[in-house]
Design brief:
Blueprint lengths: L5 E6 L11 H12 L3 E5 L11 H12 L3 H5 L1 E6 L1 H11 L7 E7 L13 H4 L4 H4 L3 E8 L9 H12 L2 E4 L12 H11 L2
Helix pairs in contact: 1-8, 2-4
């Protein structure tokens, strides 16, 4: 992989699989030239998406990330909701010199209004001082009517405070379940494009 080519890896939401929601549309737009310099866009199959186990998902992510430092350094994790938690837990388990190019977190959260059974390991506290230096750039996209995190302003403030994230709003997008969300492509291109 050339130094200037990026690799994108999807980490979906609870109940999400590679062809759920906006993922195929987003990938298609990226491949048709919305963003230059993309070498690869990986949509891994994560096990048990309707009752995900954190260790199993992190094994998949570890295998997909590989151990090539150049590829890792040129990777942007594209995450959705629970996928953002998976990415941060993944990074928390890596050594101090492990660094990715970026995190593009759609509907990323720190707490949920109504957690459900099985969510506890995912919602566990994240070691922010350990994780923050491993991410080159963090961009978080939130909605003003997300049914899982109604306090979007408080959520946005935590992202800015904890990871110095650029927070972008996508009004009316709820929890980003739609098949086509052009704003996500625009926000990604604005923040990670050449």
């Amino acid at each position: 992989m050339s130094d200037d080519l990026k690799r994108l890896i999807l980490v979906p939401r609870w109940g999400g699989w590679p062809y759920s929601d906006w993922y195929p549309y987003f990938r298609g737009e990226i491949w048709t030239g919305a963003v230059e310099g993309i070498a690869n866009f990986v949509l891994p199959d994560y096990p048990d998406v309707d009752a995900p186990k954190i260790d199993e998902w992190l094994k998949v992510l570890d295998a997909v990330m590989g151990d090539d430092p150049e590829k890792i350094a040129n990777t942007i994790l594209i995450t959705h909701s629970l996928g953002t938690r998976a990415a941060m837990h993944f990074l928390s388990r890596k050594p101090a010199d492990y660094k990715i190019l970026g995190l593009f977190a759609v509907a990323g959260w720190w707490t949920l209004d109504k957690p459900w059974p099985g969510l506890e390991p995912w919602a566990a506290e994240i070691d922010i001082p350990n994780v923050a230096p491993k991410i080159g750039k963090t961009v978080v996209v939130l909605s003003d009517n997300d049914e899982y995190t109604k306090d979007y302003q408080g959520n946005a403030a935590l992202w800015r405070e904890r990871l110095d994230a650029a927070v972008e709003m996508c009004p009316g997008a709820n929890h980003f379940f739609d098949e086509e969300i052009p704003e996500l492509v625009e926000i990604f291109a604005k923040n990670f494009g050449e």
